[in-house]
Amino acid sequence: MAEIQIPEWVPLFPLPNVVFFPKTYLPLHIFEPRYREMVQDALGGDRMIGMVLLKEGWEIDYDRNPPIFQIGSVGKIVRSQRQDDGRYNILLYGLKKFLVREESHDRSYRQGHIDIVEEPQTESLLAPVKERLVELTMRYRQKMPGGEALESVLEMGLQDDTLVATLSAGLPLTVLEKQFLLEAEDPHQRARRLTELMEMGLQTIGQADGQTEE
């Protein structure tokens, strides 16, 4: 299969509560007029959208162009549904991580001139790292409402890099923690960072419950 070509300029969709990872799926409901236009343009072209996280204080200037984190992920619209009132439901599949070099504001929505950030190909995680990741995920499964979904992720037989990305996106971490994971240099570093965050999270849960997590 030919590699998907990603253009140098992509529409940017900044959100305050979403960090998007390559090799994961992201459902979105699009209701603001400027982002309806963005989706319409994307569907008429290469179907690609760049997701980026808004920085703290975005509320002050949200209707214009508040600051964003420069590292994001570009996704392709793999499913779309236009509603009668012009809103869209879309599903993005994450393709690549990128760095925003510059922005253009000549449309109602932001566009970014991006450089793709390639990560080294990863056949598999080191065995101790993966074992610890699975162990911590099962602990989270016991502590979280709806934690069964985490167990189902482990049972899907995902490649290790996809597993790490899916857990990074799905676990109840803060958006800044997820951005920290996205900006990892490779899946190995992301997995190590994720296990550290999970260990801290379980300690916090244990302290709240009057228990100690090891």
Order of helices and strands: EEHEEEEHHHHH
Regions with pLDDT < 50 over 5+ consecutive residues? none
Our count of helices gives: 6
The chain-level mean pLDDT equals 91
What's this entry about, in short?
The protein has helices at 33-43, 127-143, 148-154, 160-170, 175-182, 187-208; strands at residues 9-15, 25-30, 48-53, 71-82, 88-104, 111-117. With 214 residues, the chain is an alpha+beta fold.
Question: In words, what does this structure look like?
Answer:
This protein is of the alpha+beta class and 214 residues long. It folds into 2 domains: 9-117, Roll (Archaeosine Trna-guanine Transglycosylase, Chain: A, domain 4); 127-208. It is built from 6 helices and 6 strands. The protein has helices spanning 33-43, 127-143, 148-154, 160-170, 175-182, 187-208, and strands at residues 9-15, 25-30, 48-53, 71-82, 88-104, 111-117. Strands 1-3-4-5-6 form a 5-stranded mixed barrel. Strand 5 and strand 6 (111-117) form a beta hairpin. The mean pLDDT is 91.
